[in-house]
Write a structure and sequence with these properties.
There is one protein chain. The protein is an alpha/beta fold and about 350 residues long. It has twelve helices and nine strands. The strands form two sheets. It has a seven-stranded mixed β-sheet with strand order 1-3-2-4-5-7-9, sandwiched between helices. The protein has a two-stranded antiparallel ribbon with strand order 6-8. The longest helix has 17 residues.
């Protein structure tokens, strides 16, 4: 019996003032089918109903990293009001994800996110480990729609350190990373030591960087990213919206399906984050790490590892042991190779 909503804002339009308000305003507009939504506009006055409210809360929960109950949206139906509630219930939004909790010791194993922005790929590996340590991972900015990716390896590592390291719950940490995640683990180990945080073990799985020595910001257009992707990562999607990403970003591995579907921003956001992370890795200039690296490499390694200009090269930290496993850069993480990989990671964590 209610009149049809006229679709106009509840008052004068007030534009978003920061990245988080922009993200949420975009989600409001997307769910409502509007071109724009102001931070004080009322969701229900703009045509929102209970079904759209459920959809919106799901997307907001993803963007904020914690669940937003539908009842909160009914009580606080604007972008500004939702964020006011969020700030009041949690001063910081944690993106740390527990892969496996053992509660057996004060040792935590941190798996660093891949170039897709999430570490959910490691869940099956973590469940096969013999270690009694708690295992964690996290997501990084750019995973959700509207977020701006970090552009430097150093900044990504610092972000992961803030998210993963909780001195009140553990006394020492081991870092494990595959591919891009290994580069983050390498840089994070150095930052932890600089901050007086003990690094127990550093395990790198197929972790390489570009042999180029470039400075940041790059003095060349981003169009050269394609060259970096060809030497440091898998073939990237070529469509403008990234819709082909799920099929070929990590070759044929089914692990991509896990992570790309878990990335809350959809194919386009994941594709953009992937490109940003590959670019960051291409411009990273690692210094020699004082933490000994336990390296795991695939039998069929990346082409150009011999140091050819533009190709990948190993990180400059001292390697105390190198284990060679069957497979290539991607298949080493597939189900058929996970048991042997888990044994190698356990060895690295024990040494």
């Amino acid at each position: 019996a209610l009149p049809a909503p006229d679709g106009r804002a509840s008052g004068d339009y007030v534009a978003p003032r920061n990245a988080l308000e922009t993200t949420l305003a975009g989600l409001f507009a997307e769910v409502l089918g509007h071109a724009r939504v102001g931070i004080h506009d009322n969701f229900f006055e703009l045509g929102g109903d209970s079904i759209r409210a459920v959809a919106l809360c799901s997307r907001i929960s993803t963007a904020l990293g914690r669940k937003l109950p539908v009842r909160v949206l009914f009580a606080r139906p604007s972008v500004a009001a939702v964020l006011e509630h969020h700030a009041g219930t949690s001063a910081t939004t944690s993106r740390r994800v527990a892969l496996r909790r053992s509660h057996g010791e004060g040792h935590a194993v941190c798996f660093l996110p891949t170039a897709l922005g999430s570490g959910l790929i490691y869940r099956r590996l973590a469940n096969k480990l013999a270690t009694t340590a708690d295992t964690f991972t996290c997501t990084i900015p750019g995973c959700a729609a509207g977020e701006v990716p970090l552009v430097r390896i150093e900044d990504i590592a610092a972000y992961c350190m803030r998210e993963l390291i909780a001195p009140d719950t553990h006394v020492e940490w081991s870092l494990v990373g595959w591919s891009f995640g290994g580069v983050i683990a390498y840089e994070m180990a150095q930052q932890m030591l600089a901050n007086g945080l003990p690094v127990r073990r550093l395990v790198l799985i197929e972790a390489y960087v570009s042999s180029r020595q470039e400075t940041w910001p790059p003095n060349k257009p981003h169009g050269s990213m394609e060259e970096e992707e060809s030497s440091l990562g898998p073939p990237a999607a070529t469509t403008s919206d990234g819709s082909a990403l799920a099929g070929d970003l990590l070759g044929s591995t089914d692990l991509l399906q896990l992570e790309s579907l878990a990335a809350l921003g959809g194919p386009s956001a994941v594709f953009q984050l992937y490109r940003a992370n590959v670019s960051a890795m291409g411009h990273y200039q690692p210094t020699r790490c004082s933490v000994s690296c336990f390296e795991i490499r695939a039998e069929q390694t990346l082409s150009g590892l011999n140091g050819k200009d533009g190709g990948p090269r190993t990180l400059p930290g001292p390697s105390e042991r190198i284990v060679i496993l069957p497979g290539d850069h991607y298949s080493i993480m597939e189900e058929e190779n996970l048991s042997s990989l888990a044994l190698a990671v356990d060895e690295g964590l024990r040494r």
